[in-house]
Recover the amino acids of this structure.
């Protein structure tokens, strides 16, 4: 289940031209299942109306702390207490200054001062205002107090100039909200490594051997881990997907590059999820120039022969070097077109994995390019779980449910062994004390 499902959020919209983008943000948050209370500053209402946000959130919109009935004055304390996250987007220089210095002269700043919820701030303003030492000092002060600052983006501004100061896209803001909400999840304090996408093995400067992997499942796995509090390293093969917010990305377009990146990233990591579709073979030699048809056989290319060699078996090498990665939980993927169970179980045993996620990519709605997946989980302890067809994001959640259970089991075993060692040591001390 998404970390946004049922979450209580306060979204503050301040008086900048980017206020119109907040409508899409509130819409997407609501669609994700969050309960969103929108607060508009007085100047925000010069750009957008309360009706817009009331329609999108299906909840009352708050504007005036000083309205005559006193409802808002009382409600701002309740909103502050109920909120799990306060997100200010866009945040103008003026509002950032007020938040930094503890002012509470309107509904939004009063809520921010009264809440214990995490504060996420997305600055949006003209480039020079953003770069001004006063604004930077205010952002630094808020950051020191624990606020999460979402960096503004570069691009065309309302002034017509190009530069930093644009409000981040909705996907980025959603990612920031999800990451902060999930910071104390069941993967908090863990470092996980996820591989995603296919590899491309060059034939010449133009052509390559590849596969149909889109990387969607791996990216969903990386996002789900981030939403549970993990520090995530995403090793991406050939994919056009955007890097999820808060995730460290390493590009590894070939099998060899992915092997090297995995070994480097897994030093000290807790979990490796190898969901990338790594090529099994690569050309023995790579032509320095584009291969011309007229230079091959009869001039039509019909006689072209490629000699291939095996690529590194990343999980196999990890198994052989297990002593280098003590305690690392390893999850492999098996994309098959037949004999799914036999292939999944064989891979689980041969590569010494803790879990194998297998799917039949020939089935509709499963595998490469699809938004959904149908997988079977093969556990090291012999359990097998057939999952129904579901969104890849939900598959990712089920994988992390399984891994979190394994991590918890490892912790219990460690605690038991530590207790046993402490008991032996205590008994030895008791015995020695009898002779003194």
């Amino acid at each position: 289940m998404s970390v946004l499902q049922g979450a209580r959020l306060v979204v503050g919209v301040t008086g900048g031209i980017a206020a119109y983008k907040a409508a899409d943000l509130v819409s997407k948050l609501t669609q994700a299942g969050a309960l969103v209370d929108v607060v508009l500053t007085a100047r925000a209402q010069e750009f957008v109306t309360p009706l817009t946000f009331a329609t999108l959130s299906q909840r009352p919109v708050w504007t005036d702390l000083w309205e005559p009935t006193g409802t808002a004055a009382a409600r701002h304390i309740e909103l502050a207490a109920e909120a799990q996250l306060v997100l200010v987007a866009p945040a103008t220089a003026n509002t950032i200054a007020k938040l930094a210095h503890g002012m509470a002269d309107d509904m939004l700043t009063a809520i921010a001062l009264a809440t214990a919820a995490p504060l996420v701030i997305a600055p949006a303003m003209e480039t020079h205002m953003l770069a001004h030492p006063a604004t930077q000092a205010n952002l630094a002060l808020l950051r020191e107090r624990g606020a999460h600052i979402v960096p503004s983006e570069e691009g065309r501004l309302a002034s017509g100039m190009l530069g930093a100061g644009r409000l981040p896209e909705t996907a980025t803001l959603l990612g920031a909200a999800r990451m902060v909400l999930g910071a104390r999840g069941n993967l908090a304090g863990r470092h996980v490594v996820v591989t995603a996408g296919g590899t491309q093995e060059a034939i010449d400067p133009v052509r390559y051997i590849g596969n149909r992997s889109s990387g969607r499942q791996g990216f969903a796995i990386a996002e789900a881990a981030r939403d549970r509090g993990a520090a995530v390293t995403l090793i991406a093969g050939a994919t056009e997907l955007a890097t999820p917010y808060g995730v460290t990305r390493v590009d590894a377009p070939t099998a060899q590059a992915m092997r090297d990146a995995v070994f480097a990233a897994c030093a000290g990591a807790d979990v490796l999820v190898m969901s990338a579709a790594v090529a099994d073979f690569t050309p023995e030699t790579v032509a320095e120039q584009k291969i011309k048809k007229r230079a091959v056989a009869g001039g039509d290319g019909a006689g072209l022969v490629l000699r291939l060699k095996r690529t590194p078996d990343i999980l196999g090498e990890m198994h052989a070097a297990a002593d280098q990665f003590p305690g690392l939980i390893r999850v492999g993927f098996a994309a098959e077109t037949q004999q799914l169970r036999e292939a999944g179980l064989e891979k689980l045993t041969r590569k010494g994995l803790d879990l194998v996620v297998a799917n039949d990519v020939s089935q509709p709605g499963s595998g490469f390019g699809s938004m959904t997946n149908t997988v079977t989980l093969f556990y090291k302890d012999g359990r097998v779980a057939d999952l129904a067809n579901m969104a890849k994001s939900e598959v990712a959640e089920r994988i992390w449910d399984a891994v979190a259970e394994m991590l918890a089991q490892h912790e219990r075993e460690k605690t038991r062994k530590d207790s046993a060692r402490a008991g032996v040591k205590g008994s030895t001390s008791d015995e020695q004390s009898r002779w003194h």
In short: The CA atoms of residues 58 and 346 lie 52 Å apart. The two ends are 61 Å apart (CA to CA). The first strand starts at residue 8 and ends at 13. The mean pLDDT is 92.
